[in-house]
């Protein structure tokens, strides 16, 4: 495995939220076809709690710092996916995002922001949540997959990714927006970009076949290739198994790719080998959480901030 010792693409710390009353959010089911609706119950909640606990421990075992927060409330069914309501950026910047579903707006937590300020060097917090009353939404690093090296924000056009909000973010944080349309095999629009693609330091995983405009597809692939990355193309079936919903992190022994057991099982040997050229694969077993329509990447809010001494 070949890799440089440090990459701005791969954070060494994450925020995770462990739910105590996990359930599938019926409010978001209309445009998230990855959800598997199920009855609520203590068994479901207990399983999700245990899955996040084990996932956090596994990442820590690999040298990733995990700031684990608990959600004991009953009004935030998607709180296990904190990457949608905030992101962090080199230079000490934090962004808070406007969320489409009202239940998801309640996920924003001041204690998480205060922890970031206490443990890391934070210069400012830019809050875009005031766009919600105008119906302008941008659901964080679910709506955008950020190339922190080449400074590009890849984004699937959807109700959760408003072009005005995206333009404001890109202006503030010095990213170039690259927007495209994507649908699954049934013609249903993809709701979040991070189920479609993952950008790591040495490679990019992408469900290119879901991109509806061939010319735009070629432009996106070419841009990723110009950044020096190898391209791991994912089939529609692999995307449905959350193979695109992964995140590269900096571990104790080098970079790792965190993804779910479901996702790893969907990859073929050549795809795994391409990933392992520059990152060790760390599978996390979260099948109950995945029923809510997101996988490992959604559960991880990467911290791209400088720790305080």
From TrEMBL:
It comes from Shinella pollutisoli. Transmembrane segments: none annotated. Keywords: Hydrolase. The keyword Ribosomal protein does not apply. It comes from the Bacteria. This is Citrulline utilization hydrolase CtlX. It holds the Pfam family DDAH_eukar. The keyword Transit peptide does not apply. One of its GO terms (molecular function) is hydrolase activity.
